[in-house]
Design goal:
This protein is of the alpha/beta class. Helix content is 34%, strand content 22%. α1 (20-30) crosses α13. It is globular. 42% of the residues are buried. The model has no long low-confidence stretch (mean pLDDT 93).
Length: 483
């Protein structure tokens, strides 16, 4: 059989998801100069970039500069973007298998982990992921039923996301007004009565998951005190010695010590860092959270030599009107993909999908990002992860049979989507949305003002296309009407 990825049999690759992991994978494929290929990227929403758009805190604009790299990838003539197309609903696993030689799943970890305690589902007890999506313009969370009329909020967890949500809750709204935070979130934060955010960490300060820039940044917030009880960071010599080689933990401890040394609390708002405590019950009144019962912990060594938190039986109750849990994230099963229920990832070896029961490698199917390795690392960590999976894909090419040559025509997927009356969004269409948001933002000195609903996005695209491509705009409107 003739070799794949040559001029006569160009490699056809589908990527499900247009977040950092998927786009880093596309970039790595494009850099394989000896490959002749085309890449189709499918995304549930009309907007690409995944967590860079929907997850990075709005006051961290510098982190979003990676979008410039991703734009070059999407603009490559070998790449097509199909936004507003949902895998498992609009297109299916068997269809992609017949039209693409290789498929990469880059769908991230969309669900949050639960605390598993009584009262967790009371009103105003929410996952931090939903809060992040709400202030970042994720269409699923634009109508999040959040109430900021309480004076104290509790954040469970002390990773980077926990630091983000704690910071956003007490930041000066006028500082946020310079960012790309959504209008609905900015309006609510301007009227917020939250004055104290208590961050609960189940283990000690040396085991905290936040990175140094996150804990350092808390001390720079205008009119916000960072409160740390000196007893929480008074560690014994054995504990300090055990963590001596962890420079990040040591630096974090220094910042915590500096906060603890400052006893002059004069600001209107505060962030209180608590360690070795876990929530055991969310207490409610009239169906809404009114308090959280927490238990003091101690650290014990497990069988693997790691340190785990164990409850001491000493309890405390904190009045609060809002609780945001940030205790981890997990992938969820999707159509046709082997899913590991133990670690909530797509079952894989070095990025190659592997059947659960037989252990056999699924030919031509791969995974990248958090769905591959679990929810760990920053945006940049996805690049080497994706490169490793792409290298595995290239290694597999000599043994890969590939799709039938009559299915290699790139127009076939467009034909399929059109037959289903799907108003898919191309990269050109995304550029219309991008320009619109940036133009709106420039009026207020902001990077952009985001659109937060798919219907709004599609209306803006149709309006612009009506000026240059009336027939295309009309066709898109007819498709929307049918749906």
């Amino acid at each position: 059989m003739e070799q794949l990825a040559v001029t006569t049999r160009p490699l056809r690759v589908a990527i499900i998801g247009s977040g950092p992991a998927g786009l880093f994978a596309a970039d790595a494929l494009l850099k394989k100069r000896d490959l002749v290929l085309s890449i189709d990227i499918f995304n549930r929403f009309p907007t690409p970039f995944g967590l860079v758009r929907d997850g990075v805190a709005p006051d961290h604009q510098s982190i979003k500069s990676v979008i410039r790299v991703f734009e070059k990838t999407l603009a490559d003539t070998r790449v097509r973007f199909f936004g507003n197309v949902t895998y498992g609903k609009d297109i299916h696993h068997d269809e992609l298998r017949s039209l693409y030689d290789q498929i990469i799943f880059a769908v991230g970890a969309q669900a949050d982990r639960r605390m598993g305690i009584p009262g967790e589902d009371l009103g105003n007890s929410l996952p931090a992921t939903a809060f992040v999506g709400w202030y970042n313009g994720h269409p699923d969370y634009r109508d999040l039923p959040i109430d900021l009329s309480c004076e104290r909020a509790i954040v469970v967890g002390n990773g980077n996301v926990a630091m983000d949500v704690a910071r956003i809750l007490v930041m000066d709204p006028e500082e946020l007004a310079k960012s790309d935070i959504t209008e609905h979130a900015l309006t609510m934060l301007r009227g917020s009565k939250v004055r104290e955010v208590v961050v609960l960490g189940r283990r000690g300060p040396l085991q905290a998951a936040f990175k140094t820039p996150e804990i350092k940044e808390l001390g720079t917030l205008k009119n916000v005190d960072v409160v740390v009880d000196s007893r929480d960071i008074d560690l014994d010599e054995g504990t300090l010695e055990a963590a001596k080689t962890d420079r990040g933990a040591q630096t974090n401890l220094e910042f915590l010590r500096n906060y603890a040394a400052n006893q002059e609390y004069t600001s209107e708002r505060r962030i209180v860092m608590r360690f070795l405590v876990s929530p055991v019950e969310v207490i409610g009144q009239d169906g809404r959270i009114s308090a959280v019962r927490i238990e003091e912990n101690r650290l014990v060594e497990d069988s693997d030599g790691g340190l785990r938190a164990r409850g001491t039986g000493r309890y405390e109750t904190l009045e609060a009107g809002l609780i945001l849990r940030s205790v981890g994230y997990r992938s969820v099963p999707i159509e046709g993909v082997p899913f590991n229920e133990k670690n909530y990832t797509f079952n894989n070896v070095a990025g190659r999908l592997v059947q659960i029961e037989s252990g056999e490698v699924v030919p031509g199917e791969y995974v990248v990002g958090w769905a591959k390795r679990g929810p760990s690392g920053l945006i940049g960590n996805n690049k080497p992860d994706s490169v490793a999976t792409v290298n595995a894909m290239v290694e597999d090419l000599p043994q890969l049979q590939g799709i039938d040559d009559e299915n290699r025509d790139p127009a076939l997927i467009e034909k399929l989507l059109n037959e289903r009356s799907l108003a898919y969004v191309s990269y050109r269409h995304w550029q219309i949305l991008d320009k619109y948001e940036i133009t709106r933002g420039s009026k207020y000195g902001r990077p952009r003002v985001k659109l937060t609903s798919v219907s709004e996005m599609m209306a803006i695209i149709r309006e612009e296309l009506a000026k240059t491509s009336p027939a295309m705009a009309e066709a898109m409107e007819e498709v929307d009407a049918e749906k």
